[in-house]
Amino acid sequence: MDVYPRPGKRSGAYSNGVFGVHPFVLTNYNDDYESVSTMAHEWGHTMHSQLANAAQPFPTSDYSIFIAEVASTFNEALLLDKMLAAAKSDDDKLILLGSALETMRGTFFRQTMFAEFELATHTAAENGETLTGQRLSKIY
Question: Which of 7, 60, 88, 116 is surrounded by the most beta carbons within 10 Å?
């Protein structure tokens, strides 16, 4: 796991599960709630990959991005539940709930947008259209 930001490091966060090898997790932790939530999210992906890889042979262990988000967002929900129970004031709870709502909005619309993009690109390819960078940018 590569936790902290440093010069030259890729921004953002991700988890990469590799069959037969330990997972790789990258975060850019900044000692705030968003960083903790991101860590919970990425470890949701990591545990999903570990369990999928342990339960299935390589050819069937992969899963779609849509399915991947179930484990990661569930992990975020577990964190939110714990944080709300530990919150010391209504203001703290409102901040947590506001953050959770924003995350849900982003996750819902972003995943829907990706699905629509994939459908449009597959439809274009099936119709014999050439998928140039310019065409893909226009679809996106």
Answer: 116
